[in-house]
Backbone:
C-alpha cells in the first residue's frame, strides 16, 4: 500500500465528480495526494434509446477514461440509478471502500441538491467515514478498521443552488483556473451525456454549464484574477479527526480563500 496520503472524490453518477470536484482533485493530486474516484451509480437509466446493459458498459468506460486523464484509481459503482438509499447494504459496501483507500481528504456531494441520489450519496459516505475506525462494524467485503484522521468537504450543489432554488455560498473557495483545461478534458470523456442531459434536463451544452457554474463561484469569491473556482463547505471534524483543521486549505495554500464576511453562510 502506498504511504502517500489519499484523496477520495465520490459522486452519485459518472460525471458528478467532474462537474463540481475535479479542479480541486487535480490540485490535490499535483500536491502529492493519491487520487481516487468513484460514482456509486451504474447510470443504467442514462438513455431512453440504448439497451440498459449497453448503457452501463458505456458509462463505465467513460468514467474510467476520465479517471485515467489524471491517473486516478477508479472504484466501480455498486448500485443502479434512483436506487441510492441510505440503507445497510450500501453503507457496508461504502465502508469497505473507505477502509481500502484510507483517505485523509474526502470530496463528496452537497447535503442539499436537486435530486436524492446526490444527497443520499453524501449521507452514505459520511457514515462510512465515521465508521471506518469501529472494529466491530463489518464492512462488505470485510476490511480492517482504520484510524487515520479524515477531513470531509462538501461540493457545491448542481448550478450552485439548493433544492429550493436558493443560491448556496461556499465556505471555502478554490482557484481552479490553472486546472480548468484538465477538468474540461475529464468531463468531455462523458460524451454520451451531451444528448441525454439536453433531452432530460435542458442542458444543451454540459461543458458550458460546468464552465458557467465555475465562473459564478469565482465571482462569489471576490478574488481578482480568479477566472474559475470550485466551492466547498467543510464537514464538522467530530468523529472524523482528532482536531479541527482545514487540511485542504493547508495543502492548497495559495489556491484557497475563505468566504468574505459579507457572504459567509450563517452558522
Residues:
Amino acid at each position: 500500500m502506498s504511504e502517500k496520503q489519499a484523496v477520495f472524490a465520490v459522486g452519485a453518477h459518472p460525471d458528478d465528480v467532474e462537474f463540481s470536484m475535479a479542479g480541486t482533485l487535480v490540485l490535490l493530486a499535483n500536491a502529492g495526494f493519491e487520487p481516487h474516484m468513484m460514482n456509486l451509480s451504474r447510470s443504467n437509466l442514462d438513455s431512453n434509446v440504448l439497451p440498459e446493459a449497453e448503457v452501463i458498459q458505456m458509462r463505465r468506460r467513460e468514467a474510467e477514461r476520465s479517471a485515467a486523464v489524471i491517473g486516478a484509481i477508479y472504484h466501480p459503482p455498486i448500485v443502479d440509478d434512483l436506487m441510492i438509499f441510505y440503507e445497510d447494504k450500501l453503507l457496508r459496501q461504502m465502508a469497505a471502500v473507505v477502509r481500502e483507500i484510507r483517505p485523509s481528504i474526502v470530496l463528496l456531494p452537497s447535503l442539499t441538491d436537486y435530486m436524492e441520489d446526490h444527497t443520499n450519496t453524501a449521507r452514505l459516505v459520511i457514515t462510512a467515514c465515521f465508521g471506518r475506525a469501529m472494529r466491530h462494524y463489518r464492512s462488505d467485503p470485510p476490511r480492517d478498521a482504520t484510524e487515520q484522521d479524515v477531513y470531509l468537504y462538501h461540493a457545491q450543489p448542481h448550478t450552485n443552488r439548493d433544492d429550493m432554488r436558493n443560491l448556496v455560498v461556499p465556505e471555502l473557495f478554490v482557484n481552479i483556473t490553472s486546472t480548468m483545461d484538465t477538468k474540461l478534458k475529464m468531463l468531455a470523456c462523458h460524451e454520451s451525456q451531451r444528448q441525454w442531459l439536453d433531452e432530460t434536463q435542458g442542458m444543451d451544452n454540459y461543458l458550458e454549464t460546468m464552465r458557467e457554474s465555475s465562473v459564478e463561484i469565482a465571482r462569489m469569491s471576490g478574488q481578482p484574477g480568479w477566472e474559475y473556482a470550485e466551492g466547498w463547505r467543510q464537514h464538522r471534524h467530530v468523529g472524523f479527526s482528532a482536531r479541527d483543521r482545514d487540511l485542504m486549505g493547508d495543502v492548497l495554500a495559495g489556491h484557497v480563500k475563505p468566504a468574505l464576511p459579507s457572504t459567509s453562510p450563517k452558522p
